[in-house]
Amino acid sequence: MLLRLTPLLAALAACSLDGLADGGAGAGGTGGLGTTTSSSPSATTAQGGAGGEGGGGGQASAFTWLRSIGNGSVQGTSPYPGEAGSGSTLRVSEPGPAGEVWLAFATRGSIDPDGPGGLAAAGNPDSHNLFALELANDGTILHFSAFPGSLENIDDPLSVGAVVRLGGGGVAVVGSFKGGTLDLGAVGTITQNSLSQDDGFVLKLDASGLITHARQLGSGNAQTARAAVLHQGSLLVAGKTKRTLAVTNPNGGAADAPCALSKPMEEFERALVVVLDDSDLACTGFTSFTATDANAAQQAWAITADATGVFVAGSYTRQIIAAPIAAVPASSSEDGFVVALEPDMGTPTVRWVARATSNRNGAPDGLRAAMLAGGRLWIGGYLERGTTPIAGTQPEIGVVDALPGNDCTFAVSPEMRDGVVATLDPATGSCSGALLLGGPQRDEVRALVPHGAGAAATGLTTEGIPGLDQALGAGSRDGFLAWLSAGTDIALDGGFSVGGVSWDYLDAARTSSGALILAGSYDVPFDVLEGDADFFVGAMPEP
Question: What is the C-alpha to C-alpha distance for residues 108 and 122, in angstroms, rounded to an integer?
Answer without folding.
Answer: 11
